[in-house]
Design brief:
Belongs to the short-chain dehydrogenases/reductases (SDR) family. With 336 residues, the chain is of the alpha/beta class. Helices cover 50% and strands 10% of the residues.
């Protein structure tokens, strides 16, 4: 009898582990976040009526955030350098929701112009009376080998992605501390967890950003009502590659490549909103093998170094062959 029970327990355990392995193979986010998708708080009820400030809202993840938050009934402050693009996003938000004209504030903002951030924050607070959530999404990526890249490019990436984000946060945080509530969200990257070729400056800026917010979270222990969430997405369908910096400032990417193989921006944003609604401190969002790499870097870094070395070598080969570094990531470049 005892032998039968033990056998059943072993079979049950093996079946459970098999199910979890299969789930992980098809997962597109960390297991905590996927659990909350099924059983956590819904963004529809949690985020409705909130005042959300989104930087980098004119395209990509920021644009999709604006659309989904508008459809949920959140009031928005949308920022980016290009006013015309922001106005188009606002018009689309109004079409997708029951929001009124005054529920969406177009607030042009350049992350490089840090001396304007205090005044911009004041305009946002004056318009709505408060800011419930700041989503630091604005930034630029990179596609270049370090040995070919001017230091001005590395400086620009740090100024935009890291110091620009810190600057906006610096001016919004006192408002949240005074109210005792709020959420600071930083859109980092999977290369904010690990390293990858062709993005040395970008990766450095995202590592710095993640380290900053992890440290800031510990400083706010006396403010339990303020949540800090870091989002680490893998490749997502957006214009981030087309807008990436290269070897020299002002030099555009020559081959952006097909983006259709990447995660849909709408799915990435939905997962982000679930995490924000449930006050998740860090979210890993990405299709395989990028999700697997996040787990390897977190729990088995020695293995991660080995896998990253192999995949990184292939990525550099593709880049040198004039192929898109992302869409051809696992494709051996053709030789004539």
């Amino acid at each position: 009898m005892d032998c039968c029970v033990a056998t059943l327990l072993c079979l049950g355990t093996a079946l459970y582990l098999l199910v979890q392995v299969i789930r992980f193979i098809f997962a597109d986010a960390d297991l905590t976040l996927l659990w909350l998708v099924a059983f956590g708080k819904r963004p529809e009820s949690t985020l409705r009526g909130k005042v959300v400030w989104i930087t980098g809202a004119s395209s990509g993840i920021g644009e999709e955030l604006a659309y989904q938050l508008a459809s949920l009934g959140a009031r928005l402050i949308i920022s980016a350098p290009r006013v015309g693009a922001l106005q188009k996003v606002k018009n689309r938000c109004l079409e997708l929701s029951s929001l009124k004209e005054g529920d969406i504030l177009v607030l042009p903002l350049d992350l490089l112009e840090r001396d304007t951030h205090a005044a911009k924050t004041g305009v946002a607070i004056q318009h709505f009376g408060n800011i419930d959530i700041l989503i630091n999404n604005g930034g630029r990526s990179q596609r270049s080998l370090f040995q070919d890249t001017n230091l001005e490019v590395i400086q620009a990436l740090m100024d935009i992605n890291y110091l620009g984000t810190v600057s906006v946060t610096k001016h919004v945080l006192p408002h949240m501390m005074q109210r005792g509530t709020g959420a600071l969200v930083a859109v980092s990257s999977v290369v904010g967890l690990a390293g990858a070729p062709l993005v040395t400056g970008y990766s450095a800026s995202k590592h710095a950003q993640r380290g900053f917010f992890n440290s800031l979270r510990t400083e706010l222990a006396d403010y339990p009502g303020i949540t800090i969430s870091t989002v680490c997405p893998g490749p997502v369908q957006s214009a981030i590659v087309q807008n990436a910096l290269t070897e020299e400032l002002g030099q555009p990417v020559t081959v952006a490549g097909d983006q259709s193989h990447k995660m849909a921006t709408s799915r990435c944003v939905r997962l982000m909103l679930v995490g924000i609604a449930n006050q998740v401190k860090e979210m890993w969002i990405g299709q395989q093998p990028f999700l697997l790499m996040s787990y390897l870097w977190q729990y088995t870094p020695t293995w991660a170094w080995s896998v990253t070395g192999m995949l990184g070598k292939r990525r550099v080969e593709n880049f040198k062959a004039g192929l898109d570094a992302d869409s051809s990531y696992f494709t051996k470049p053709k030789t004539s």
